[in-house]
Amino acid sequence: MNIEPYATPYKLGRPVLVGSGITGRFDERAVDCPFVFQHNDTFYMMYVGFDGTGYQTALATSKDLLDWDHLSVILRRDEGSSWDSKNIAGTWILKENRIDAPPVLKKWNNKYWLLYHAYPEFGYEEGSAKIGIAWTEDEQLLEWHRCPDPILTPESGAEWEKGGLYKECLVEHEGTFYLFYNAKNTNKGKWIEQTGVARSTDLVQWQRYEQNPILRVSPERWDSGFVSDPCVLQDKDQWVMYFFGYNYKQAQEGIALSKDLLHWDKYPDPIIGVGEEGTIDSIFAHKPSVITYNDVLYHFYCSCRPYKDGDPTKNYGKEFRTISVAASQDIFGQ
Predict the structure, then answer these.
(1) pTM for this structure?
(2) Ordered structural domains, the chain, with CATH
(3) Which of 46, 58, 183, 195 has the fewest CB atoms within 10 Å, i.e. the most exposed one?
(4) Arithmetic mean of pLDDT, 134-157
(5) pLDDT at position 334, please?
């Protein structure tokens, strides 16, 4: 398996986005789950903030992919239906699939479409999450209309996903929508997270693939607990999935390849490992968002290390959770 064209071994080594640390702000304790795209000649990052009560979702903007400015919260608590009014994490907007093309948004039925998941209780990922969809005609991407009902629920799924549904990735190919997501088998105790897919032609009615999960954990390996957070891109006749693996100690980025979006072969080792003690990603390097700019792959991910005195934020578990980036070429001058 040749993964060289997709490798991103050069780390920036510092955050590109950090939570505010300001009491009452949506990102008081952490930022998480980057999703980077291009819109109207500007780079955008959709990301999640945690304030101790739950997740809310925001946009930031950048001209160079390294310096980011918060723009606005776009998915807030207390604004949706009862099922998504407490905790809402936006993770994907329908966009161009090709890995070598500008990551611009795509419209369907003259609207932009955003996927998110919502947890039923306040707290840090409390309860079994469901997947929802929202749309906008606003070219500023600030006003989103959530459809009132979830499009996928754990109750309607198989045993491997009964504990809750998470990180969404939406791909349109030849008239069919593919919704990749990870899910856990239970929301109590030590669970296993794996990745599945559902298909649709109208974004309303979804059919789960009968051979889910399409990406499974590997016992006794670096991804023995989780294979999660799919980021799927097309390279000519091949599909590339970035994901993260977790062994209940460290979370690291991996890659899988496919010819048909349904059958995937995992590369056996991480492509981005955790850093040395004291570095920004010494415990977690996970949750990928990958784009190409000027022939360079930029691999954004959530970076975590233990909290230190002086850090602007302290997340659940006493960690410093930020967003960083790695690249396919040594462009950071290190």
Answers:
(1) 0.97
(2) 4-327 (2.115.10.20)
(3) 58
(4) 97
(5) 58
